[in-house]
Amino acid sequence: MISFQHVGSIFSSGGALPSSQVPLQSVMCSSAVRASFPLAPVFDVHVNSTMPRSRYASWRGGSRRRRSSLVACCALRPAVRAQEFAAFTEENLEAFLLNAQFSICEEAAAADGSGKVFVFDKWQRGEDAANGYGITRVMEGGDLLEKAAVNVSIVRGHLSESRAKSMSGRGQAVEAGACYFAGALSLVFHPCNPFVPTFRSDIRYFKVDGGHGWFGGGADLTPCYLFEDDVREFHTFYKEVCDKYESGFYDKCKMACDAYFYIPARKEHRGTGGIFFDDLETGLCKPQRDHVFSFVRELAEGFMPSYLPIAKRRHVLDYGERERQWQLLRRGRYLEFNLLYDRGVKFGLDGGRIESIMVSAPPLVAWKYNVVPEAGTDENKLLQVLQEPQTWT
């Protein structure tokens, strides 16, 4: 049985875990990976031989000498591509998040087809390596994806008073100063073509020492133009994933998604929704922990299969300046939600690593005064749906 409580998130639903970080060098060899995060799987480096070696960042384990923290011309490939993570441990979670990030970036770059690759930016949380790290990967200027970001964060620390208060308000009995472990994978895809929807998804885990942990996560679509078949396909995909683990769980997650991604000032929802859950307890019983971990893994493994068929189908449609301008206006709404209402972003902006937090922002946006689409237009049709959540399955 999956224990579902209520909506609420200490983490960003679209970015990295909020924390204070300093850049760390990009990992360039298996031994360096072992030295910097020994719990992660071994990586082999496959370098694009057409690129001059002077453009690669280098790093020697234990050295404080820093060069570039970005690598845009190499691919980090897990030495073991297919691993089993059935038993839940923090180590297995970390390894799964890293493998999932690699697979998502590889598949997204292949689907994009432009030859663009994801830069690799590894950062450390503070001066003490024991506080954890993150990996931010970004691809920009593609053919399918104008901007794509896939983040992993593995952090440890002590709860601040404000975060402890927020979590206690959601029914989690935690105290300021308590030690915690947190891990997360998040992605945001902003497409080039206005007929392709924006895609956001994440999984995250949080545990306070001495207590049990809980998961959060979800996946949702933000279209600029409504294709009802696409939305039904997307929701049906996640209903099958959710209800496989608990009957009726999709309905709870959909309602939570509709409630969370709402822009009160506009009286409209950010997109056509999907699923969103938080405070999904792993409990103290090992079978329950493994069961919840299995659900979260299947959810993450479904991110690309749920989105890419829709993106590829709409990517071939022709569009003009009118559609592009509407896309930029809708991206403005997307950014409004992130900056005004997203709890994770608001937490992160208070002393967090700004590049990892704002990486979820669209590459270009527009605001125009009092834009009201004419009745009967495709733009107006979208707004009608965003003002009142629909049943899609």
Automatic annotation (TrEMBL):
Catalysed transformations (reactions): coproporphyrinogen III + O2 + 2 H(+) = protoporphyrinogen IX + 2 CO2 + 2 H2O
Coiled coil: none
Alphabetized InterPro entries for the sequence: Coprogen_oxidase_aer, Coprogen_oxidase_aer_sf
SUPFAM superfamilies associated with the record: Coproporphyrinogen III oxidase
Family annotation (Gene3D superfamilies): Coproporphyrinogen III oxidase, aerobic (3.40.1500.10)
Pfam families: Coprogen_oxidas
PANTHER family cross-referenced by the UniProt entry: COPROPORPHYRINOGEN III OXIDASE, MITOCHONDRIAL, COPROPORPHYRINOGEN OXIDASE
Name of the protein described by the UniProt record: Coproporphyrinogen oxidase
Organism field: Sphagnum jensenii
Native organism taxonomy: Eukaryota, Viridiplantae, Streptophyta, Embryophyta, Bryophyta
